[in-house]
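Hey L., structure's done. Input below.
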Amino acid sequence: MPGENLSRDEARERAALLSVDGYEVSLDLRSAVGDAGGEPRTFRSVTTIRFRCNEPGASSFADLVAPRVTSVSLNGRDLDPGEVFDGSRIELEDLAAENELVVDAQCAYSRTGEGLHRFVDPEDGEVYLYTQYEPADARRVFANFEQPDLKAPYRFEVRAPEGWTVWSNGAGELADGVWRFAETKPISTYITCVVAGPYHYVTDSYTRTFEDGTKLEIPLGAMCRKGLAPHFDADDVFLMTKQGLDFFHDHFDYPYPFGKYDQAFVPEYNLGAMENPGLVTFREEYIFRGKVTQASYEARANVILHEMAHMWFGDLVTMEWWDDLWLKESFADFMGTFANVGATRFKDAWITFANRRKAWAYRADQLPSTHPITADIRDLEDAKLNFDGITYAKGASVLKQLVAYVGRDAFLEGARRYFKRHAYGNTRLGDLLSVLAETSGRDMTAWAASWLQTAGVNSLTPQVLLDTEGGRIAELAILQEAPESHPELRPHRIAVGLYRRTPEGAVERYARVETDVHEPRTVVAELAGSEAPELVLVNDDDLTYCKVRFDETSLATLRTDLGALTDPLARALCWSALWNMTRDALLPARDFIALVLRFAGRESDIGVLQMLHAWANSALTHYAAPDWRETGGELLAEGALRELREAEPGSEHQLAWARFFASVASAEPDLKLLTDLLDGTVEIEGLEVDQELRWAFLEPLAAHGAADESVLAAELARDDTASGKRHQVRCLAARPSAPVKAQAWAQVVESDALSNALVEATISGFQQPSQRELTAPYAQLYFAAIERVWRERSIQIGMDVVRGLFPAYQDRPETLDATDAWLEAHRDAAPALRRLVLEARDDLARALRAQECDAAADR
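Output:
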């Protein structure tokens, strides 16, 4: 990674000097197929950039990461590539007022998901290509000025192998062996896109007639690998797409501006999806090869709508620099759920948001690397790491609070004015705040200072004082706290709900008020005199972003009657609060697991249930006292099997419990049951053991030594696909053998032969909570290797290795000491690398505190 970084100061200096009129990019991708003769594969990239310079005679640079540059021409002058190109930048001296730069280069195909990724399908040998650039990998495909505020229109042309189809941001045509694409609107480099190969492609169209009589027609397309075509439910993808377009046209009052709307589901993708205008790319795992729950379909719909929202928030109007990444990601994250609830069949998507997305935000906001939503992004490495729970989920949560603060109508009218005022331009925080101040009549300065420009999460706790008879509330107050590291107390618009048991045994809300919380202690006067509650739920309806705490009476009610809460959002909020208490060492892990075992079987929302399964697993592996883990694992396996057998045959709850049972199975009888289910010698009524579920059963069998290499090879023969290969690689690395672990370590750390997807699969298999002793020797090796890995590998692979191989399962004080020693000895290491290690250290320290809390529960 040396030399490939770009600082904010350099970008600002270049933006003040240059403006770009347009790009013409010609790519020759015919080298993607055929025999490369053992040499690294490259493709020809010829780029013409026309740009202006405000100070003739000045110097600047263009960006390009390529193995070789054949020629460079600036304003008709041939420059020596050896003198002006250093591997990542092309120096440009003595610029004219108007300039033309032509760069002819050999660029490298990627195996890490960065730049132009090349994938060979093991099923049929077909080659598939796609690009992924955010934040700054377009320079791996063509020469450019790689920063978001130097927008320009683009014309792409592509030569591809015969029989292929090529797509880009604009509409394309094939003539004389060349695919030529319509010029784009002015957009940033990181959202240009090329997809090429023998993809399975399905088409549809969207039509909208506006009130003034104008008609908008948008050609729709959706594609995937041929091997996934039998599983591709394009009709549902198009349904979500059309519903989303209707929703955003209704609310944004700005017609979709980018012509066609293709959506490509591509292999070995590092992200969930990417908002390239006219050609959105998604990870192909959103095409479901087996039976999944409705939570998976809801998640896919949310991603489709998230990326669609970016067509306005991010593509039409783009942040000036990555400091204001929230201007696109926070809004898209909020709008994904907002549109899901408002336009699709997933009317309970706010429950998923409260339970799943916010959990991501709460974790990120308590790490030492937490940052304000408007972050201080010094360079591209900072930017890469800030695609995190703060920028996405906390930002979206804060926008939900903003809607409650200014009102839905004022919020949407602000968005409409923002689009019209800044179309095809770049913005900063103040540009959005000014329109919201106009539409709401509120001064946004204080709100932004509290919510966007400070870090940390507040805790809100109810304090209930009863009258002398104990039957009514004398006073109810909300206590607001902040951690010492981030002491900001914020203005919260919240709902406070009072709940009690009904004669039928349900727990239902009987009173609710909305109030503003600003101070350390806020009295909710409207609730004085109300009947004494058995449960007080602060932040009822999930209006604000905070950690919810409970008074003693409320916590006691949840211990006995959590499953009786009739409102699914209230239940989800209570589960989330209990999980945060477990993470904060306020609730023993075994108590949380007991609550899951007692009440999860009654959970109606499948997304919440699957989140509870994940949390219970984490509670057992990270937060339970070591000497209780075996007991806890037995209890979870026993409970999961009971719920599996009692679930409605063929239901999605049955499927969720089957997957959870496999994840916690370790005892011989449980492993035998998994084997019998695979062999078909035992059946559970209604449970279809399809190919994806077979792999889910095989991983614990492999991890516990009950499925050897021959079994996994036979399963791959049964499922000889790209997905099957990833599953097999993970299972192979999961086997409990020292040579297996040594091989997996070498493949990831000492070699760059594996693709990004297989690196991820190998790391996942290597790290098994049941193999703490087996992987203990790698803790020391980890600290010896990570700086070299960070230096030599791409940033994506570096992040995967540093995060994935941290010795989290060596949860002892000695590992914490070793981490601190590395941090002390490597104060000058890359800041992004240190951030990753600091985050892992914080997770480990949190686990040790939680284990102490859990151990104390046994005394």
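The two ends are 51 Å apart (CA to CA). Residues 155 and 183 are 5 Å apart (CA to CA).

-- N.
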